[in-house]
Amino acid sequence: MAGMFGHAESSGAAANRAFKAQLNKVYGWYTGGFIAFIVVLAVLDSHGIAGFRITGNPQAILPMSVSPLGEVRIAVHEDVADDARRIIASHRGRSA
Fold first, then answer.
1. What pLDDT digit, counting tens, does each position of 49-80 carry?
2. What CATH number has the domain bearing residue 59?
3. Which residue among 2, 6, 33, 37 has the highest number of C-beta atoms inside a 10 angstrom radius?
4. CB-side exposure of 66: number of CA atoms within 13 Å?
């Protein structure tokens, strides 16, 4: 009987490790996306363009909510939209 329970316990431990590994991936992508969001807002702000988040429901427990597809949208006034696109495009691919 001890062998039966030992096998189930190791199987449960393996499932817990797999779950934790997947959870770490999800939170890693979430955190990376949030940091990218903050960086984009900061870059726009440094060029005098005010931006704000327009995606998702009101914040709950975490600092931001994202849509079911994991998408975050930033809005700027339409008068400066072309400038904002140009600024963001000029910063893509730069190394930190």
1. 888 777 655 444 455 555 555 667 788 888 99
2. 3.30.70
3. 37
4. 15
Burial class (CB in 10 A: 0-12, 13-18, 19+), 80: middle
Residue 52 lies in a domain: yes
Could you read off the pLDDT of 3-55 as tens digits, one per residue? 555 555 567 888 888 899 888 888 887 788 778 888 888 888 898 988 877 76
Which domain covers residue 65, as residue numbers? 29-91
In single-letter form, the type of residue at position 40 comes to: V
At 80 the three-state DSSP class reads helix
C-alpha 87/C-alpha 74 separation (Å) is: 14
The total number of structural domains that make up the chain: 1
